[in-house]
Hints:
By secondary structure, this protein is α+β, with helices and mostly antiparallel strands.
Amino acid sequence: MSEETEYCSCKLYVRGDDLDPQLVTTLLGVEPSEAYLKGEHKILRVNRESPGKPSNLIVRTGTWRLDVDEEKKRSWDAAAQLEYWCAFLTSREAAVRELQAHGYEVMVDCYIDEGPVVYVDLSVALMQALGNLGVALKFGFYDGENLQAEKTS
C-alpha cells in the first residue's frame, strides 16, 4: 500500500466462548484495548446518546483485543502491521500455544479502507511464521469514499 492509504488497522484478537480475559492478559503480558466476556453488553466509544455507556449489542463470544497505537495505524501499511504482530506473537509463542490449548482462537484482523483496489504484499516468511503459530488472518477491504456516497444517496 502506498502513502495514499486512507486507513489500515490490524488488531490482535483472542476469542472463545469461555474466554478468561485476565488469563489472556497475564499470558501475553499486556493490557487489552478492549475485552468482553460472552453475553456482556458491548460498550461503544462513539455513541451520540451516551458515549461510553453499554449498548444493546450483546457479545456473542468472549473477546480480548489489542490494537497497535494510533501513530502506527496511520503510518504503517498492512504488511508492516502484520510484521509487527508476527514479531509480537513469535516472542510469546508459549503463551499463544497455551491460549490455543484452552480452545481460544488467536487471530489478526485487518481492516483496510483504501479502495477501490487494494494491494497487500505479504512475504512467505510472514505467512509461514503466522501459520506455524496457528494464527489466522482475516481481511476486510472497504472503500469508505464509496460507502459514504451510498449512505447519502
